[in-house]
């Protein structure tokens, strides 16, 4: 084989060109073949002129991954595209499972590069100010590949740990009860008026931001392209923003900069609540 194949795993961010990284643009530009879920391909359509496109539906992920690897093995330059970050609930895992099966190694018959992208939780957070400034956990409510019992366990752990929580895949037409169940679980650990942002289609057509509270979040319109951010015990709403303090205001006077509680680590208001705090 004269030409060495190249396989690029590309996350292109939330969906708007402005949030596509320079490297993502570069490697999509370089590719002979672009492989992806149809909707994702449409989002980068402007970059695809003159390229071969392999667009398949959502359920054909394994086929798509195999095609991408096969074509790179044949010496082509292949970009497999995915929204957000390709390694976060994306195709990178499946591709690397295949690579491990076929015994691929760096320096082998094709190169592999993972290009990071802006994941939904950062995109969504940026639209509502500063909700993720302290420890957070991401949980996908999709039980298509993960048993629901495992998801529940993680929700309990995230609730118990008072993490800010980002819910990916919160709901679809077929998965319509999981969000309510997640809400019930989190209400065991968080107060009902915990601030919540429900963001649909961040940086895409049809973008919609709803600020609500944990006890009311299931009333918002939630679909396949929604990410939900749920505050921790310190998160507060300010105008149309959610703010999770890092603890500066507990430690310093924000106007003078003087230390108020020398040596005491006080992450925001959360420690004002008793340690055994339950809603
Ligand atoms: N790899 C992607 C996640 C894929 S899972 C990433 O890193 O963002 C699909 C889920 O991502 C959706 O159900 C939704 O929760 C979230 N998502 C993807 N794009 C989004 C967008 N533009 N706005 C809000 N949520 C989005």
Q: Can you characterise this structure?
A:
By secondary structure, the chain is α/β, with parallel strands linked by helices. It has 2 domains: 5-118, Tetrapyrrole methylase, N-terminal domain (Cobalt-precorrin-4 Transmethylase, domain 1); 121-238, Methyltransferase, Cobalt-precorrin-4 Transmethylase, Domain 2 (2-Layer Sandwich). Helices cover 26% and strands 23% of the residues. It contains 8 helices and 13 strands. The protein has helices at residues 22-30, 38-43, 61-73, 92-102, 120-127, 148-160, 178-186, 248-251, and strands spanning 5-11, 33-37, 52-56, 77-82, 110-115, 129-130, 136-140, 164-168, 195-200, 208-213, 226-230, 236-238, 241-243. The strands form 3 sheets. A 5-stranded parallel sheet has the order 3-2-4-1-5, with helices on both faces. The chain has a 5-stranded mixed sheet with strand order 7-8-11-9-10, sandwiched between helices. A 3-stranded mixed sheet has the order 6-13-12. Helix 6 links the parallel strand 7 and strand 8. Helix 3 packs across helix 4 (92-102). The chain is elongated and about 65 Å long. 39% of the residues are buried. The model is unreliable at 263-275 (pLDDT under 50). The chain binds S-adenosyl-L-homocysteine (SAH). Keywords: Cobalamin biosynthesis, Methyltransferase, S-adenosyl-L-methionine, Transferase. It holds the Pfam family TP_methylase. It comes from Candidatus Manganitrophus noduliformans.
Note the beta-strand portion. 15-25%
Tally the helices: what do you get?
Answer: 8
Give the uncertain stretches in residue-range form: 263-275
Taking all Cα atoms into account, the compactness measure Rg is 21 Å
Query: Main sheet, how many strands, which sense, barrel?
Result: 5 strands, parallel
The order of strands across the largest sheet is 3-2-4-1-5
CATH class of the largest domain: Alpha Beta
- The tally of domains stands at 2
Q: Based on helices, strands and strand pairing, what is the structural class?
A: alpha/beta
Instruction: Name the CATH homologous superfamily of the largest domain.
Output: Tetrapyrrole methylase, C-terminal domain
Report the average pLDDT across residues: 90
Using the 3D structure, state the CATH architecture of the largest domain: 2-Layer Sandwich
Count of extended strands: 13
Distance from first to last alpha carbon: 65 Å
Q: Per the principal axes of the C-alpha atoms, what is the gross shape?
A: elongated
Small ligands present: S-adenosyl-L-homocysteine
The helicity comes to 25-40%
Secondary-structure element order, N to C: EHEHEHEHEHEEHEHEEEEEH
